Fold:
Amino acid sequence: MDQNEQNQIPQTTPTEMPVIEPAAKQGWWERRTGEKLTKGEKIWSIVFFILFLFVFYVTLDANKYQALVQVVEGEGRVGVNPTDEKLDFGDLSRGTAAVRTVTIKNDTYVPFFVSVIKLGGISSLIKIDENNFMVRRGEEKKIEFATYMPASAEIGKKYTGRVYVFKIPAPGF
Structure:
């Protein structure tokens, strides 16, 4: 090989050069992986994102109540604390019960589906009169939460938990 052949840079035509798009024209996924998303993958990404926002909205819009009851000694003793912020069943002796009511009113133009979830140590003591139902525009429904203190309950024990009332928009119903 002579000196001229070593110093020569190979010539390429413009069609052989790789096309590098500026970062502004590339999507997030393409900048990270170097691969483009197909049309179907883009559609599924958008659907998933909208579903995520919907679930996020429903979770934030849920009515959240702290639920509590305390077991006290004696027969037929009921001490009730009236409040709207909590499902406070107060002090109950063994064999007694207390009821709390939550009112659901639909002032929107869209009907919604209502679902109640109970969590915590008190969840096994709470009975819900109606769960998983629709509330149409302008309707008002009351949900009764009843707690019965069993004979086996430990005196002085405080049962606590949370109750979530989800209102999920249901257009078309």
Summary: The longest strand covers residues 158-169. The mean pLDDT is 79. Residues 28-58 form one domain.
